User: What shape does this take?
Amino acid sequence: MKDFAVFWGCTIQTRFPFIEKSTRMVLESFKLPYRDIDGFTCCPEKSLVNNVDHGAFVVTAARNVALVDELGYDLVSPCTGCVSNLATVKGELKANPREKAEVNGLLKEIGREFTGTASLKHLVPFFHDAVGIHTIKQKMKRDFKGMRIALHYGCHMIRPSHALKADDPLNPVKFDNLIRGLGAESLQFMTKLMCCGQGLDRIDEHDKALDFARVKLKELKAMKADALVLCCPSCFLQFDNNQFLMEKEGEKFGIPVIYFTELLGLALGFDAEELGMNNHRIDCTPFLKKWEELSARPAVSAGIEEGLTGPNALG
Amino acid sequence: MLEAKLDLKLLEMCSKCGACYAICPSCVNIPSYDPRAVIKDILDGEHEKWINHSSIWQCLECHFCLEMCYQHYGFESAMTAMRNIATRKGAHPPQVKRGWEMFVKTSRLGEPALPARKKLGLPEPKASGAEEFRKLYALLNEKRQQHKAE
Assistant: This one.
């Protein structure tokens, strides 16, 4: 496997450093060749920067990709937005040689060059494709058999598909495969692929952002999902923080929101506190408690032959 | 250079299709939101109507429409172009203004939370590329000025 730089992004490092912690713990566990490199800036955030200045969006992303290109590394990120933005610009420049030449003209003056050789991957498809469910299963100490998990892919893990080529953009399967690989049930439900709506919180429309969160959380509550699992800091903010704000106003959902790296970390045998799960605003205890209870139950094979007295087939 | 543009030819086709409407999360969940109305007005030469309207910011850029679009255009492209125009007229939401200012000044949307990092036992964050970014952004604007002058 090629060495890869981890692109942490602004949101994780600013608001959720515990996500960085659990990500590092799982990367270490699998002894993956990850690197921290100097010089990254914001990816940049599309809904902000691209709406204001497309040129700034393109040159900023091209510069970030150039840093990895130069070192001969690939790039992996636990943030869907970052990967999607970087890949969108990489795709745009690869498809448009004139624009690429223009951008490289500017980059040259700061001593950089965009070649677009680095592969850009989100952590979930990376674990699915490069690490593999088989390897994960070998490392696992405890599975999630009996746990009912609702997945939220996050739009930018899979779209735009022409740039990301990560999974089917309308019927993705890789995240589901990983969850099933960990032994849990991946629930199928109406709002599974619905956008989290966090973007509305960035344009002064907090009430509408809450409306979006409410639609999904209501369905999950009705289905008695044990947790919502995702791998995007924006979606995490939407479902953990905004759920907390709604609960403060008396609307109770009680759906723990768990980052993919935390779930994987638990399966590898780390405890919840070590993984930083006590930093969530929605309490994860109900999920962990049910998991403990299920694990404490005797194996299904135990007791089957208990009390049988007659002779067996061979007498 | 490097400006997002409205492609009226594609929009003409777009206005007759609507394959993306039922999959668009904002269309489904925000009652007043309908990009088809915006596109109709653009084609009628009345895009001004929407410049100060919150609708053009309610597109979540989830890219569902782009995936559904037979032209690989998607009405998000029209919304992005409208937001660009609104921004250049200073009509963008205050939060977008604040975010943009922070980005241009620091090259990031926030600085690493140092005390929390320490508590979690995380390593020192790597050096940011802020200085190089500022140079690059200045070069981009210089080039634009030259372009205008020519």
Observations:
- Chain A has a mean pLDDT of 96.
- Chain A has 15 helices and eight strands.
- Strands of chain A lie at 4-6, 34-35, 74-77, 120-122, 148-152, 185-186, 227-230, 257-259.
